[in-house]
Amino acid sequence: MHILADAADRIPVRANGFAVSMSLARGGLGAGWSAGVFPFSDDELGAMSLGLADLQPHYDAVAARIGVAGERDDLDPFFPSSPSMMPPLEIDTNAEVVFER
After folding, report:
1. pLDDT at 2 over 70
2. What integer best gives the mean pLDDT of the chain?
3. What pLDDT is stored for residue 34 in this prediction?
4. Which long-range contacts (CB under 8 A, 24 or more apart) does 53-59 make?
5. 48-71, pLDDT tens digit by residue?
6. d(CA 22, CA 7)
7. DSSP string spanning the chain?
8. How would you write 79-100 as a 3-class SS string?
9. 22: Cβ contacts below 8 Å, ≥ 6 apart
């Protein structure tokens, strides 16, 4: 909860109809959710009469603009990588402890 601490008091936001989450922590909300970015699947997009192929060029443009790091691995069939994907980041000490367990 430290990433959300004091943000609402220091940056008051009036938002009707949705919940606001913001952070003043170093790294912002990415400090809590690891800044994961994943494309929607064909199943998820089907409800809107879209498919991954329709949005892939746009996902690729966003990845090129914001910089997305990752590994091309056995999850590619589920989360297709982008040609703009950067090499994976080094594991931090927290993730290393979780990984070793």
Report:
1. yes
2. 84
3. 64
4. 56/80
5. 999 999 999 999 999 899 888 888
6. 6
7. -TTTTTHHHHS----SSS------STTTTHHHHTT---PPPHHHHHTTT--HHHHHHHHHHHHHHH--B---STTTTTS---TTPBPPPPPPHHHHHHHH-
8. CCCCCCCECCCCCCHHHHHHHH
9. 4, 7, 8, 11, 13, 28, 29
Q: Is the dihedral of CA 23, 28, 33, 36 positive or negative?
A: positive
Question: Residues 49-84, buried b or exposed e (16+ Cβ, 10 A)?
Answer: eeebeeeeeebbebbeeeebebeeeeeeeeebbbee
Beta bridge partners of 86: 69
Q: Indicate whether 88 pLDDT > 70.
A: yes
Q: Give percent of the chain above pLDDT 70.
A: 94
Q: How far apart are CA 30 and CA 22, in angstroms?
A: 10
What does pTM read for this prediction? 0.57
